[in-house]
Structure formats: C-alpha cells, structure tokens
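Assemble and predict.
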Amino acid sequence: MSRISGFWRSPWLLYAALCSPLVLAGAAVLRQEIGYLADPAKYLLEFLGKAAVVLLVVTLCITPVRQLFPKWELSKALVFRRRQIGVSVFVYALLHFALYLPYVGGWQGVVEEWSKLFILSGLLALALLLVLAGTSNNFSVKRMGGKRWKRLHKLTYLVVALVIYHQFAQEKTGYRETLLYFWPLFLLEGIRLFRWAKAGVTRPA
Amino acid sequence: MHVGKRRSWQLSESEAISEGDYWNRRKFLKAVGLGTGSLAGIPNLIGATAGFPTTRNPKYSGEGLDVTDYDLVSGYNNFYEFSYDKDGPAKLANKGWKTEPWTLEVGGLVDNPLKLDVNDLIKRVGGIEQRVYRFRCVEAWSMVIPWDGFQLSKLLQLASPKSGAKFVKFTTFFDPKVAPGQRGGSIDWPYVEALTLAEAMNELTLLATGIFGKPMPNQNGAPIRLVVPWKYGFKSIKSIVRIDLVDTKPVNTWQALQPSEYGFYANVNPKVDHPRWSQGSERVIGGGFFSGRKDTLMFNGYEEQVAGLYDGLDLRRNY
C-alpha cells in the first residue's frame, strides 16, 4: 500500500462523508418535506436505500478509478478505505430494511411480500452484505487467507446484480433512476473491459 | 362547506382545510406583490372553475372517513407530465402552464358533438357538487379527497352517444413547452385513459373541477379531470382536453407501457396483486410513521355501487 499524504489521510473526512446521508435525512425531516409528511416511513426507507445504492456504486468504482488514475491522491485514499465504505453499504441497507418493517406493517407484511422478486432481491442482497460486512476486518482476512477472502468478496458483484434489479423493479416506468445511480459503474467497468480486451492480457486484480 | 348540522365526522375535515392559513398566505402574497401561482408550491387559485358554489352531496358525505390534509392532497402528486417526483408537480405545474381558458371537446360516436369552455360546461350541466371519495393509488397508498364536480353521465347525456358507442376515451393536454415531462421519457404522450360506457355512466364517476370547495390546483389536474373512485388512481386522468365515444377498446397509457402489470380495468382489488408488490393493504397518506397499513377494500369500498358492472368477468384475468 503506497503512502497517502496530507489531507486525505484523516479518517474523519471519510466518516463525515459516510454519515452525510443520515444528516441529509434529518434535514429533510426538520424541513418537513411533503414526501416525509405524506408517508414518513416510506420517505426514510427510500432515502436510506438510495444512500446504500450510492455507497455501493462508490465502493465498486474505487478499483477501476485507481486503475485509470493510479497517481491521484484521492483514489489512493479510497482504495485504503474501501473496506470501511463497503461496511457502510451494509449499515444503510440494514437501516433501509429496518424502515421497510413499519412501511409494510411489521413481520406479517414481510411474510406476505417476501416471495415477490422485487423484495426477494433486496433480502438476498442484504444477507450477502451481512456476510461481506462480517468478514470485513483484519482478523477475517488473516484467518481466511488473502486469496480465499478475495474470492468470497467477489460476491459483491452478485450483490450489485441483485441491487440493480431491486432498484429497477421499484421504478414504475423505464430504467431512468437505475441509470442515474449506476452510470459511473457501467462507464468505468466498460472502460475496464475495453482496456482489458485491447491489451489482451490477464485482468489486473 | 358544510350542509346541515355539523356531525362528529366533520371535525377532521375542518382541520384539514385550515382555511385561515390558506387565505392568510394568499393575502401575504398579494401584499408583497406576487401573483398567486407565481411561487412554487402555491396552489393556483385563479382556476377555470373559480366562483362556482359547491354543496356537499349528502349521499357521498364521506361518513366515517378521515379527509386527507389539503396540503398533502395538493402537494403529493403523481403527474408525470411535469415530474417523476411526488413534490415536483406542485412546483412545475405552476410555472406558466395556463389552465384558463380551457376548451373541452366531446366527439366520436355522438349525436351532438360539443366543444365548449369548461366554465360554460359547468353551467350547462347545472353546476357542481362536492363528494368525499376514497382515492387509492396503484402504488399502495391512499387518500380521502373531497372532490367538486359533476357526474360524467350528465355530460354524456348532453352529447348523446350513438348506439354503437361502447367505450369512452379521454385525452390529456399535450404541450411539451410547459410540461417538461412530455419532452421525453418512455411514455407515449399525451396520456390517454378509457372506461366502458357503463362505467362512465355509473353514478360514482365524476368530472372534477375542484377539491375542498376550491378550484382544482394545477398539479391535481386543473381545470377538469376524471375521478373513478373504485379504480386505481392512474385511471382518473387529469387535465382533459378531449372525450371520444368509440366502439373498440382503447389501449390506455399505462396498459401500453406495461401490459403485464396494468390492465384495461385497473379496478382496486386486494386479491389481485401487482406483480411487484401486494395490493392487499395500503399506506394512508398523512397517517404518520407508525400507522401501519390499512386493509384495501374490494373496489375501494364501492362494491355495492359497481360490482354489478363486472358480473361474469374474471377479475383475475381482467385486472
């Protein structure tokens, strides 16, 4: 791991960024936004779900950004903090699920709806995120060994697929919003694939 | 506006309107020299149907129902012509979109085609009345709304449908210059909706020109919109410019978009789920965080008035 200098070194900057969705949600409550007044549970549920999606996209963009801009300080810092950002995805997904409960009317509502692909995709993604977040610590990396740990964490791509479906399925028409959140990932992965195909060499890890 | 003695159930309604706040805000706007409707989120008071008195029809007084707050009814809207966000239409539909004067045309298979101003139309049908109806969105949320308007059947009688007419097709305005949503997206504008002639003639079916005794706010579909309380909200097409009597079943906007999810009828039915979510229960708008869910009623609680329209029809297939 190359050294990170100066400004980006402090973890507090990252922690502040990771807490910002909570602050923004709180601000929306204080402003008494109409969407919040109309249905508070739904409003917060969607807000925190979006936070999880954005952070997931950020987590997944880190490696391709690093490959494109290896000398950029921010990209180095992000690689260094990637595990923490990944864990925050799980935290927001869990909060999102916690708000789904009052929205759907408790466990009974979950039982009624869980088999719908829309809900199932979210529940599965949350379960996988639990595994990933649970092993996102130095102890797990050591115990599992780097290679096995990496293989396990390739599950992130399955999470992404599930979340893309989950996001898409809540849109009433088209895929506008899904594209809005995922375009940086699509773009970067596209570039990555293109470069990989052009170079004709094995993909960098 | 109350008719007769004030009963216990009317309490919530008077709270809902908060007339004082409403007019004070208007006075404030006048005082600072702003025209009404010029500020984002302020309902347009100079609607096409201003000035028509409305009285509550005692048959549809909404007894036992809690009327939703005016601010929520006029602030939480689906109106994709303006925005995909619920709070978008209240801002964007009041930015230069003119809903007065407004001409409505009735044509197709009728003996007396009509083309007249909405205000004249209200005079022709003998004025407006208020009815409190449940309103259930396909997205599994609901409101209770006092609509002001008249029965669609009155207009249809004026136009006098020919014997071959079987369906009534409605078309919304089309003006991409003022309606940003109409400049693109996956929807084929303008929005169209249709009912069978029997559904259109049902006593519940309204053409609404206002809510809460006030002219229809732009974001709620000024100046004239359909209200079909036993169907999902998207059937109640807004800002109508054309009504046509036709002999073949039209394809409605949502039906064209997602035929597997939205059918022609779109009757509220707790037993037939949306493929992606349950329709068995609903969130009550304004109910608060811990309100839970309310059971959705067959035909949104209007089974008695409309079930007969669907005798012998498999509602699971004809969703």
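The radius of gyration of chain A is 18 Å.
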